[in-house]
Structure formats: C-alpha cells, structure tokens
Design goal:
This protein is α/β, with parallel strands linked by helices. It has helices at about 15-30, 40-50, 65-75, 90-100, 110-130, 160-170, 180-185, 195-215; strands at about 10, 30-35, 55, 80-85, 100-105, 135, 140-145, 150, 155, 175, 220, 225-230. The chain has 8 helices and 12 strands.
C-alpha cells in the first residue's frame, strides 16, 4: 500500500524559532515542509515546489508578506495562511483582500495553526468529493471539480476561497444566505475569526463579477445576508 503525505507546506518566516516549531508540528502530522526566511526566495521556491499551502509572515525583511502574496497570486491559486504580529482589523482585512485565505495573529498556538492548515486543505477535498456537476447560468459556468469559472467563454480568476464562496452562493441561487450559513458551507466547523471575513470575500467576488459582466450578480439583503441572482440556463 502506498501512503501519501497529506500535503506540502511552504513556511515563509524570518524567525528561526517559529519556523522550527511550526515545522515540527506539521511534520508530526505527516506534512512535507519546506522553510524559507525571506520573501524573494519564497516566490522562486513556490514556483518550483507548487506547495498545497503557504504559511506566510506579513513582516518579512525586504519583500514583505503583502507583496509575496500578491506575486504568488499572479502565478497560482495556492492557499495562503498569513501570520501577522499586527492585531488591527485593517491589516487583517488587507491580507485577505490581497489573496490570503486565512490569518493568524502572533503569538499563536502551534496546535491551532495545524488545525487551520488541515481545515483549509480539507475544504477543497470536501468540495471535490461532494459536487460533480457544472453549474450553468446566463452569464457564467462554474465547474466545481476543475474549480474553474467561465464568463462568456473567458476564465475568471478567483482565489481558492473566493471560488468556494461563489460556489456556495451559486449552489443556492436566488436564496438569501446569512453570514453564518456561508461560514457553514465554506468553512464548516473549522472557521476562526469574525463574520467580517465573509463580507470581505463576498465583496471581492462581487467586484470581479461586476467587472466581467457589468451587472451586480451578488446582492446584499440588509440585515439578512447575500443572494446570488444570475439566471440558471
């Protein structure tokens, strides 16, 4: 029997103590782990390694975590878990908007970090095993298995979590979903943080759809939640 590792993780942090501790915990869970201490090298290694997830420190010397995340997003849709010593909401939101899928504020529990990594990677596996049909609408097609969205035949670039949020809304087209329902559909029981994260991701998806179609396909229902309104074809 061939036993495969649960995934490859790239750790990018200039603090050796954090790299060593996080690596030990992840390797204990069977992950393959590669550690980098600077942003520039991280971008290069990520292209070669094609990791399943990047644990990225925000405060890196030289090229900081925000720029690294932006460059990674130009090349792939790899999951990004951002580490930050900043507790301000604006910094956390900025990280999510640049393309991070989750964040953790220092100091943190290594066990919580491992749990978040496992939860992020589990989301993609769950979607692939439970959904096997393309969703077709007037403006777009959404393929859950290939994780691709096409609008008028042209691909729409979404981050991994943006895709998950759009899929959840599209699977319940013309129904209002509360923030709590979106959290349950996308993150299940593995959500950490506040429901402000939902607003950020829904806003990002809505802007991308508006840019591609010229129409508002995700509407806010005040005091309730969000509704996907494209017409099934």
């Amino acid at each position: 029997m061939i036993i495969t590792a649960p995934g490859t993780i790239l750790i990018v942090d200039d603090e050796a103590s954090i790299r060593h501790v996080v690596r030990a915990y992840l390797e204990h869970e069977g992950f393959r782990v590669v550690c980098i201490d600077n942003g520039q090298e991280a971008v290069t290694i990520a292209k070669e390694l094609q990791p399943d997830l990047v644990i990225l420190d925000l405060m890196l010397p030289g090229m900081d975590g925000m720029e690294v995340a932006a460059r990674l997003r130009q090349e792939s849709q790899v999951y990004i878990l951002m580490l930050t010593a900043r507790s301000e909401e604006a910094d956390r939101v900025a990280g999510l908007r640049i393309g991070a899928d989750d964040y953790l504020t220092k100091p943190f529990s290594p066990r919580e970090l491992v749990a978040r990594v496992q939860a992020i990677l589990r989301r993609q596996r769950d979607i692939r095993t439970t959904v096997d049909s393309t969703l077709r609408f007037q403006h777009m097609q959404i393929n859950p298995e290939s994780r691709e969205v096409h609008i008028n035949g042209q691909p729409l670039e979404l981050t991994t979590t943006e895709f998950d949020v759009l899929l959840a809304l599209a699977q319940h087209a013309n129904r209002v979903l509360s923030r709590e329902q979106i959290i349950d559909l996308v993150w299940s029981d593995n959500f950490y943080g506040t429901d402000r994260v939902v607003d950020v991701y829904v806003g990002q998806v809505r802007r991308k759809l508006e840019s591609a179609t010229g129409e508002t396909l995700i509407r806010t229902v005040r005091g309730v939640g969000y509704k996907f309104v494209d017409i099934p074809s």
